[in-house]
Amino acid sequence: MTLKAKIAPHITEIIRSLQEAGYETYIVGGAVRDFLLDRTPKDYDISTAATPEQIKKVFRQQRVIIIGRRFRLVHYYHGNEVVEISTFRKAPENPQKMIHSKTQHVLPENMITHDNDFGNSTEDAWRRDFTVNAIFYDPVADKIVDFTGMGMADLKASVVRTIGEPELRFEEDPVRMLRALKLVAQYGFRLDSATEKAIHDSRSLLTHASPSRLTLEMEKILKNTYGDRILRAFQEYGLLEYFLPYLSRNWNTPECQYLLELFVCRNQRIMDGRYRDSISLAMAMLALPFVERSLRASEDEILWESFCGIENDIRNIVLKVFNPRCLTKKLMISAVRILMLQPKLYYSKHPGKMLDNPGYPHSRELLMIQNAVKWKRPELPELWPVLKERKKNPYHTGRGFFKKSRYRGKKDSRHESGPGKYAASGDDDGLKLGF
Ligand code: ATP
Ligand code: MG
């Protein structure tokens, strides 16, 4: 199939409308990379010469909102799908020395703390992280534009190469190191040697990266069906000790071995369309082996017995596993609830009231994952019926029309796991950074 034929018609229409209004516009980023690799991208990123206000004017008749205070962009609603349209940016001209607002540390000299100056298409491409992520595609003219001149060749050779000096690019934004390894883990790419050396030399810069950016990355990894491989790559390149230090310290333990097996099984179940990519479920799954280690009376016992105060113990273990990433209260409550229900589901013979528990669908899924990896009891799936999660309208808050989110969430109905079967429970919206 040609590249043009792979693009969803409404995306081409959005781009055509902007171009007809006189604004240069492309599909950019991961979507182009994924289509060229013959994969289905999670979502589309569109970049244009139009400012957010100008975009809004072009789509006067459509559901379009400008979001973000510092990094302003546009959300275009196509049914349930949110298409993000951003204005071309350029690299900030004079990065200033900054003090970290929370730790009061002086940040590395070249660290970028704002990235919101509008620019042209060439500038926009050159400020991106890797050559394979800087290929632009115009579906109207059916034209690929490889501004760096290396994106297509690197994509063909499966190479991750920073645009410009790798040390500088990682100092500007240490999260790029994690992003490089995600490409390695997810696509089997290799790092070009200068990029690899720079990761080796710059890993400790991750301590200066914005905590909220790191937390967003973590949540994306927990949703990702290559999450286990990503964690392995982080450990191999020495980044895990800065990202999730508890897992890194425990890497060679049976608990970590077990959580990776669970992770692989969970991913397969998502890819088979059996369940969706819940973040809170993944959190519970990663903490489970450590909860077992600390709360099981003996190694022979399956799971653990409930006791007064267990909720607090479980919460503390989850916090320890994910420290220093700060988790939202909602995710935390959900993960603890999933873990609390595990022994109740396993030991109980009667589903009864437990089916009404809002944590039941995720808890059942975690039980099934453990069963597939460890217990292998064929009757277990029959005991516990599959229930759909309760539906929530992701855009309706009861007050305003659009949900106010910590993230600029987007969901593409084409790629929901378990094709539209599981409604977003609200615990894990799609995540988006300011790029
Ligand atoms: P995916 O969405 O499949 O995880 P992606 O590459 O599209 O991968 P996004 O986070 O959606 O990742 O970012 C979109 C694009 O924005 C990237 O492809 C890249 O061009 C650019 N980008 C993202 N993060 C950075 C960064 N830290 N520095 C520079 N450019 C970035
Ligand atoms: Mg993307």
Structure in words:
By secondary structure, the chain is α+β, with helices and mostly antiparallel strands. It is 44% helix and 9% strand. The protein has helices spanning 3-6, 9-20, 30-36, 52-58, 121-126, 151-157, 166-172, 175-187, 193-202, 211-223, 227-236, 240-243, 245-249, 254-271, 279-295, 310-322, 329-347, 360-375, 380-383, and strands at 25-28, 45-48, 64-67, 73-78, 81-87, 89-90, 117-118, 135-138, 143-146, 159-160, 190-191. A hairpin with a 2-residue loop joins strand 4 and strand 5. Helix 8 crosses helix 11 and helix 14 runs antiparallel to helix 15. Adenosine-5'-triphosphate (ATP) binds next to helix 8.
Question: Helix coverage percent of residues?
Answer: 40-55%
Number of strands: 11
Mean pLDDT: 86
| CATH architecture assignment name of the domain at 1-96 and 117-157 and 405-435 | 2-Layer Sandwich
Strand content: 5-15%
Contiguous low-pLDDT stretches (5 residues minimum) are 393-435
Bulk shape: globular
Number of helices: 19
Small molecules held by this entry: adenosine-5'-triphosphate, magnesium ion
Rg is 23 Å
